[in-house]
Amino acid sequence: MFVKICGLSTTQDVEAAVRAGADAVGFVLTASPRRVSPEQARRLVAAVPEGVLSVAVFRDEPLDQVRRDARAAGVGAVQLHGEHPASAFAELRDLGLTLVRATSAAFAAGASCGDFGEDLLLLDSPVPGSGESWDWSALGEAPPSGRWMLAGGLAPANVAEAVALARPWGVDVSSGVEVRRGVKSPELIEEFLRRVRAAEQG
Description:
By secondary structure, the chain is α/β, with parallel strands linked by helices.
């Protein structure tokens, strides 16, 4: 199962996520307690080994700023939060980066990864970015197709249950592996990955 650890802001965070076995690491380049500058992100990306996807996360920024900041950060992927039209993903395609569409699970009915031209789909809680848990079981009844990640309120204590109920292709966590807002815990990151891998084994 694909695992993304998001909201990293220090080299130690990146090293902890990589050491634990994360498939992707996310850097927030939009308004957030976890926000880093494109220059900071570039220094963090330097600590990401080949084979681990580095993701720049945006929310309401104009596409020309997304393009500029993603290039400055040197990431391998761009994640757009919110209700962006398919044209936004088409416009960014020439960057040659993996494109991630992040939206509320309230819009998940009948969803399919690629509907908007994205490479990966992320379904967050009804209040995206809040870290609040929500009813994952509804997705299990008619899960999206393709490469989609479950997010929103995940933590070591509940990720196995969430995986069993929603049957996602991947999972994304940020606040659930923090000791306080914006401060990651290497131990919680490791435990999260351990619980995900155990859930994969059944």
